[in-house]
Design goal:
CBS-domain; alpha/beta; 22% strand; globular
Length: 134
């Protein structure tokens, strides 16, 4: 099975000057665990990624006010670890494990086309048809 078969799209993006509180609202509304950071939603110019775990470590654990912290201040900056849409889900799993990440942006011709998550891989495993060894 290929990454394109499991990836999620469209991708949720926010501008870097948005606050963490605004990002939380978007993530709750869209039921997402991450948001990619880009000016004007330009998928060829991804600046970084913000995740729920990053928010907990970099904002809440430090007692910061999420309405006063910009996402650009806490995002994991580009370049991000990415994968091509034609790669195997096994390769996606290996990249996630080796980089200790749970979300992997999917790129085609330099543009972001989706995201694959550890949750997507678990769905695949539960179907027992992924070919994780591919």
């Amino acid at each position: 099975m290929k990454v394109r078969d499991l990836m999620t799209y469209p991708i949720v993006t926010m501008e870097p000057d948005a606050t963490v509180f605004e990002a939380i609202q978007v993530m709750v509304r869209e039921n997402k665990g991450s948001v990619l950071v880009a000016w004007n939603g330009l998928l060829k110019e991804i600046m970084g990624i913000i995740t729920t775990s990053g928010m907990f470590r970099r904002v809440f654990a430090k007692g910061l006010d999420p309405s006063k912290v910009k996402i650009s201040e806490i995002m994991t900056p580009a370049p991000l670890v990415t994968i091509g849409s034609k790669e195997s889900v096994g390769m996606a799993a290996q990249l996630m494990m080796s980089h200790n990440i749970r979300r992997l942006p999917v790129v085609e011709h330099g543009a972001l086309v989706g995201i694959i998550t550890s949750k997507d891989l678990l769905k695949c495993v539960s179907l027992l048809e992924c070919g994780l060894g591919d």
